[in-house]
From TrEMBL:
It comes from Mytilus coruscus. Residues 203-235 are annotated as: Disordered. Gene3D superfamilies: SGNH hydrolase. Residues 211-221 have a biased composition (Low complexity). The lineage of its organism: Eukaryota, Metazoa, Spiralia, Lophotrochozoa, Mollusca. It comes from the Eukaryota. This is SGNH hydrolase-type esterase domain-containing protein.
Length: 235
């Protein structure tokens, strides 16, 4: 009986000691990305953007709404994406839009100094040659204005155009500036590329297209942007 008792006691001690050993190979918490933008981000399926980070999106139609949403974030995101210039250029001069964006970036950095910011540049449009050119000018001006800010990067959406003109398959014919499903897929992929770069994730190469389906357009990516089903990049 004494020997049996000792064995039971030793077993309990071993089990107790084992239970106190910290669990290894715990999953690290994934980075979290917040996208705030105009109605053109509505079709982006945040949950499908990547398996390497979590994503939520917030619709804000103006700079004022965007600033309010930034103030109300529950926590500092790992990356903040701002797609806010599309509506702005319709009602304001280019230099005013650039100044407003610069002010919003400064405000965001005061609120979340450690959060990298991605500015998603205006998507091409075909409703107005003037607005299309204005969008291109704003892209150049905002890059120049913030080029020395190491915490800001840019998401270039010019691959939805060719020689400065919007490609019809990416832009809705009804109004000339909202995105088609294909356009949304390309926007999502462009944003994903920018986030991947910030988080130092491996770059992904789009699948090669067969034949001359792009009709001479080097940015043509095939159905859904040529990046997997629905245009999203494959992990």
């Amino acid at each position: 009986m004494e020997i049996l008792s000792l064995k039971i006691h030793d077993s309990r001690d071993d089990r107790s000691e084992f239970q106190q050993v910290p669990t290894r190979n715990l999953r690290q918490r994934k980075p979290h990305v917040t996208i705030i933008g105009t109605s053109n981000i509505k079709g982006i399926q945040a949950e499908k953007l990547s398996n390497h980070f979590t994503t939520d999106k917030i619709t804000a139609l103006t700079f004022e709404e965007t600033t309010t949403e930034i103030k109300q974030l529950a926590q500092a995101p790992s990356v903040l994406v701002l797609h806010s210039l599309t509506n702005e250029l319709r009602t304001k001069e280019a230099k005013v839009s650039v100044e407003n964006m610069s002010t919003m970036v400064n405000f965001t950095q005061d609120e979340y100094p450690d959060t990298p910011i991605v500015i998603s540049l205006p998507t091409p449009r075909k409703d107005s040659d003037e607005l299309s050119f204005k969008g291109q000018m704003i892209s150049l001006m905002i890059k120049e204005r913030l080029r020395t800010n190491k915490n800001v990067s840019f998401c270039d959406n010019s691959n939805m155009s060719y020689k400065g003109e919007a490609l019809p398959r990416f832009i809705d014919d009804k109004d000339g500036f909202h995105l088609t499903p294909n356009g949304t897929a390309v926007l999502a992929s462009n944003i994903r590329d920018s986030i991947d770069n910030i988080l130092d994730l491996p770059k992904r190469v789009p699948r090669k297209q067969n034949g001359n389906r792009g009709r001479g357009n080097p940015y043509y990516r095939g159905r859904g942007g040529g990046r997997g089903r629905g245009g999203y990049r494959r992990d």
